[in-house]
Amino acid sequence: MESREEIRRSGPRRVDVVDAGRVVLACLADVHGNTAALDAVLVSAEFALAGAVAFLGCTTTGPDPRGVLERCAGLKVPVFHLAGNGERRVLEVASGVRPVEREVDRWLVAAHGADGLATIASWPGGLRVGNRLAGGVRLCHGSPRSDIELLTSLTGDDRLREATAGVDEAVLVHGHTHVQYRRDAIGKVITGAGSVGLPYAARQGARWALISDQVRLVVTPYDLDRAAALIAATDYPGEAYLKTLRQPPNPEAKTADAEKLVFSN
Predict the structure, then answer these.
(1) Phi, psi dihedrals of residue 217, rounded to the nearest 5°
(2) From CA 72, how far away is CA 70, in angstroms rounded?
(3) Tens of pLDDT, residues 46-63
(4) Most exposed of 38, 50, 71, 154 (fewest Cβ within 10 Å)?
């Protein structure tokens, strides 16, 4: 269970308002520095349908932070970012708010570099997206009230109402749980975009979502051997990362665990 202080710090620093007009919006969560998975998504036929893309946090926290940032900067469509608990942790370690607790903490600060840290520090904690196709979209990492809250396909209506208090948009899309789902609840379409870089799923493939007048869940296959080679080419100290790629946790078990925890890093 997370401490009260951690939950307090997990609230969004700010929520930005952006306008996506009438374009299809691609929502990519939890890339976790996996450039092989991101590359596959960006060249997919489904991504070619998107007129804008939003990254829902924990984008850079993995083996190739700078590679992911370079790819995001090179996209030819409008790009929106929000920060997740991963970016917040990196910034807190870099500033001394959080002590170095794991070898990977120090590595990620150095791997971002000063310019990378400045980039992720500029990202808001949430996004309100004007989108006339969808009737308005709220984007967050964990939930609108916390970047470490675990929303799932089983979350009860009472907690959903508490977590989305003040959210007027018709569609809510989040990351953090790494499990992809779509449901209708409390008068909204609530969607877990899944994870591009480290999905919890029964079969291999990057998970993400396309938002138009409906929500489409997308799975993009990619070469795990290429991902492993790219990770091996770095000195990334996250030993469990590649194992999770090749042997992802059971999504039903992770969903059940999330409902017990409610808040978790």
Answers:
(1) -90, 135
(2) 5
(3) 999 999 999 999 999 999
(4) 154
- Alpha-carbon distance of 101 to 72, in angstroms, equals 29
Strands 206-211 and 25-28: antiparallel
Predicted TM-score of the model (pTM): 0.97
Token pair 């948009």: residue: 169
Name the residue range of residue 100's domain.
4-261
Count of domains for the chain? 1
Q: Quickly tell me which residue has 């808040």 as its tokens.
A: 263
pLDDT at position 238 over 90:
no
- pLDDT of 220: 98
d(CA 262, CA 71): 33
- The Cβ of residue 252 has, within 10 Å, a number of other Cβ atoms equal to 13
Q: Residue 65 maps to which CATH number?
A: 3.60.21.10
Is residue 1 over pLDDT 90?
A: no
What single-letter DSSP state applies at residue 45?
T
Find out whether 82 and 56 touch, Cβ atoms under 8 Å. Answer: yes
